[in-house]
Amino acid sequence: MATMSERKTVEVAAAIIRRGDVFFATQRGYGDWKDFWEWPGGKVEAGETPEQALVREIREELDAQIRVDTFLCTVDWDYPAFHLTMHCYLCSLLSEEVHLNEHEAARWLDADSLGELRWLPADEGLLPLIRAVL
Fold first, then answer.
1. In the beta sheet, which residues pair with residue 78?
2. Is the whole-model pTM more than 0.85?
């Protein structure tokens, strides 16, 4: 089994997209974590800032434009196959519509409904902080 120093680290950025008192969540349509819910975003590529990665990833995943408003936190999480470092930002959707290019579903959630979904573990850890933002 790999030790922490031997484990692959994946650096991602997550968009906590807010519209008034609701937040936008997406359901994964592929991979080991298929059907789990997450905050949209993706890998930070070489030479990109997390903010640049978010703008690119949301354009690719949702055909949408966002404004990155505020840094929220960085989450470090150990998944079985890798270590995740996830930079999380509060964002605003600048596009009226989104198109799900990679996800199988999406929902706008208020504070009470955040806990109703089966979240990816690293993403679920953000729920108390997101409720506090409201």
1. 83
2. yes
**CA 131, CA 112: separation in Å to the nearest integer?**
9
| Structure-token match 């590529």, residue found | 45
Res 38: pLDDT:
97
Burial of 48 (0-12, 13-18, 19+ CB in 10 A): middle
Residues in the chain: 134
What pLDDT shows up at residue 5? Answer: 54
Neighbouring C-beta atoms of residue 98, cutoff 10 Å: 20
Q: Which residue has the tokens 């950025």?
A: 13
Task: Give the three-class secondary structure for 76.
Answer: strand
Class level of CATH domain 9-123 = alpha beta
Mean pLDDT by 10 residues, the chain (134 residues): 68 96 94 94 97 97 96 96 96 92 95 93 93 82
Q: Where are the domains of the chain?
A: 9-123
Gap between the Cα atoms of 6 and 86, Å rounded: 19
Q: SS in 3 state form for 5-37? A: CCCCEEEEEEEEEEECCEEEEEEECCCCCCCCE
